[in-house]
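Anyone up for a design puzzle?
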């Protein structure tokens, strides 16, 4: 069976242009439209019939590419929340895990395998966006790209989360802070949540006139030890650390203590991660919670409203909330002066 990419190749246009020409969703020149229609006829391509909230497939698709640097337990929490919310409304969930997500999304759209789509691991310039904008398949992104026009997005306000972490450390008197962030490949892909947290962290540090630095880091005890040694070598006055890399929490606490620093007497630590993770580490971590359950639930509710024809907000950002635990304390004067 011919696919939309086959029609695009035959007509010499992009898949999104084919979708525009066949759906009438956006204006296309008459010459291009005729070329697309001719290619569709030659290949026997048929536009699939779309479902509705009451008469469709009863399936929602969840596109969550399994890529290097992605922390699978967190992805699982999001997936469970989407499935739970969907089942509460009598929908099943089809999971799409291809690293290059356009093909899976196209296939779902062409076959009518799902009524609507939740998209995760959103990049600032995500290559899936032109396709999502062009398809008649409703979608909601958990994440906010650089240009969200024409999309529906929901996420934690990661920029504000980064600011909140720094403001907490600044109130405690810390003057030199560092962000231990996601693995390097996450930043290379320009993943939206990671980049926005860095922006918030840096903006707040500059506003409070704190010395600051950002250190991407992989997972594991060797990586934790290496980054702890580097931090103390490059930032000898360091007394506050923000960690946006939850597998690193316990290994990083161990590494700092092996290097002679006590948490929180010598070094305060704030995490950005799900609350149960922060509460369960060896030194319970002050944290800004990543509300995976609420985000997954909201994404499903937004999708169902779109399917029913109800208006939805373009971007929904959940405000960050910080919970103080045992890992932060006022800056130790002796260490600060040293």
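Challenge accepted. My sequence:
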């Amino acid at each position: 069976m011919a696919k939309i990419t086959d029609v695009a190749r035959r007509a010499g246009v992009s898949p999104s242009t084919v979708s525009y020409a066949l759906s009438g969703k956006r204006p296309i020149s008459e010459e291009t439209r005729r070329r697309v229609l001719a290619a569709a006829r030659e290949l026997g391509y048929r536009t699939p019939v779309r479902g509705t909230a009451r008469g469709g497939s009863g399936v929602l698709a969840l596109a969550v590419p399994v890529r290097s640097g992605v922390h699978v337990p967190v992805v699982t929490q999001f997936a469970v929340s989407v499935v739970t919310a969907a089942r509460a409304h009598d929908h099943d969930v089809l999971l799409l895990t291809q690293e290059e997500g356009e093909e899976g999304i196209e296939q779902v759209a062409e076959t009518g395998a799902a009524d609507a789509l939740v998209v995760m691991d959103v990049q600032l310039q995500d290559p899936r966006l032109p396709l999502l904008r062009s398809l008649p398949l409703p979608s909601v992104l958990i994440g906010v790209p650089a240009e969200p026009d024409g999309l529906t997005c929901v996420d934690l306000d990661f920029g504000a989360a980064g600011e909140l972490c720094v403001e907490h450390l600044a109130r405690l008197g810390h003057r030199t802070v560092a962000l231990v962030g996601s693995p390097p490949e996450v930043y290379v892909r320009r993943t939206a949540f990671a980049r926005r947290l860095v922006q918030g962290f840096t903006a707040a540090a500059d506003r409070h006139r704190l010395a600051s630095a950002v250190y991407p880091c992989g997972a594991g005890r060797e990586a934790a030890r290496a980054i702890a040694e580097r931090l103390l070598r490059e930032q000898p006055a360091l007394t506050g650390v923000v960690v946006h890399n939850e597998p690193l929490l316990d290994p990083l606490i161990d590494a700092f203590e092996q290097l002679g620093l006590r948490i929180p007497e010598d070094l305060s630590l704030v995490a950005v991660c799900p609350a149960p993770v922060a509460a369960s580490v060896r030194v319970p971590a002050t944290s800004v919670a990543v509300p995976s359950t609420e985000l997954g639930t909201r994404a499903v509710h937004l999708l169902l409203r779109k399917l029913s024809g109800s208006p939805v907000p373009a971007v929904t950002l959940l405000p960050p909330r910080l919970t103080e635990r045992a890992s932060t304390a006022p800056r130790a004067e002796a260490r600060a002066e040293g």
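A detail worth pointing out: The chain is about 45% helix and 15% strand.
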